[in-house]
């Protein structure tokens, strides 16, 4: 245990105002003894005691070779005492503050006021830890439920991990930036990346008649319906489904779908089926033909509920939940059962 604060406090008392007060009191008492009892040695004892009181602590420090810097020690002690007082005041109001702000609050000791961050930000910082096993996790409901833990659902049965095209909106490789409305739209948070179904296709370069379905789940833990916007862009065509119902379709790889959907309480399943149109008019439709899909589910306040490329939360499944409408206009190679890599 560090005794420096105690030693410095005793030294300050003996050499400061308390020492003077004790010496003055002793002198008054000694004068009284001298006047009334003719006892003159009291003055001597008082003087000796005063000298010992003032110089005693430095002498003891020299004997034990212990010389604390009392200015620094007192500053540190005052700081620690201040931290303790701030923490005590902060903790008394922590629950009330947490409920009032709707945020995750904590005490840092430097201030008596609680430091608060949104539940969503805390949840998002830990999201990758929860998604390592392929779970579909979301922090979109963290603020409304005041819970910093992601709401997670296990991957779909037979789900296959996908490749994230991390350069989708930063380079022109694969042709995405040249006309991608997703990349050009500045109102979207852009937490998503284009994903492709083939592990060895660096930029989604797959056969021209490729056909595949990506799926994720969003667990609405609020207990009430939540209206959001599903932004989706697929190369070349995309069909969009929520809970088995088709809610969108596009036939232009650069077009961005903005679909208003409702996340019902509990687990909601989202599917997007992609068809990569051939570059030639005759089979086998092979060639350097990029394909992929980017999907981002966003709330009215900009909260992201799901995004392709976040961990492996979106996975390829055997097929769409219902027959796409309209159907693809040419033959398809099912990437779930066949290799869609371009030779």
Structure description:
The model has no long low-confidence stretch (mean pLDDT about 75). The chain has eight helices and 16 strands. The chain is of the alpha+beta class. The protein has helices at about 5-15, 15-35, 40-65, 70-100, 120-125, 125-130, 140-145, 180-185, and strands spanning about 105, 115, 135-140, 150-155, 165, 195, 210-220, 225-235, 235-240, 245-250, 255-265, 265-275, 290-300, 305, 315, 335.
List keywords for this structure.
single chain, 343 residues, alpha+beta, six-stranded mixed sheet, four-stranded antiparallel sheet, 8 helices
Give the low-confidence spans. none
The averaged pLDDT comes out at 77
Gyration radius over CA:
36 Å
DSSP, total strands = 16
Indicate the overall shape: elongated
Strand content: 15-25%
Structural class: alpha+beta
